[in-house]
Design a protein that fits this description.
By secondary structure, the protein is mostly beta strands. The chain is about 0% helix and about 55% strand. Strand 2 and strand 3 (about 25-30) form a beta hairpin.
Length: about 150
């Protein structure tokens, strides 16, 4: 998500920075250029997030702040894989990981035989490259990947 900030006043164009926070957690600081700036972030959880933008002020303007609420939704998708092994499929463990994407992804199961079925949770839209590695008891591996588009 991109947060755009704008500080305006009479006379001189405001300079300085705006600090963005989600509740008590600082998201980052935006340095103003011509009184505006932007910041890109993602949220680890769904729900309503209260964002506070705090302008630190300068010699021409006093400090000020404003808040707004942003509703964040998550998307989940079911990932399944099935390998084969000469010792039996139950000897395999499956490990899911994110190769590329706009933000991190959480997996409901990982590193066990049961994780051949895992739910991936996305907190931001975009294209994600997800990899799974199947490992047998002897340490041999097989790798597969899939592209997921979260909307």
């Amino acid at each position: 998500m991109t947060i755009n900030v704008s500080v305006s006043g009479a006379g001189v164009t405001p300079t300085g920075s705006v600090t963005l926070a989600d509740g008590g957690t600082t998201l980052g600081t935006v340095t103003l250029a011509n009184g505006t700036g932007s910041f890109t972030t993602s949220f680890a959880s769904s729900g309503v997030h209260t964002i506070t933008a705090s302008y630190v002020g300068n010699s021409n303007y006093i400090a000020s702040s404003g808040t707004y609420s942003q509703s964040v939704n998550t998307a989940t998708t079911k990932l399944t894989v099935l390998g084969s092994d000469d010792g039996g499929e139950s000897n395999l463990t499956y490990t899911w990981s994110l190769i590329s994407g706009p933000v991190s992804v959480s997996f409901s199961a990982n590193g066990t035989n049961a994780s051949k079925l895992s739910w991936a949770t996305f907190t931001q839209t975009g294209t994600y490259n997800i990899q799974v590695v199947a490992t047998d008891a002897g340490g041999l591996t097989a790798t597969s990947s899939v592209i997921v588009v979260a909307e």
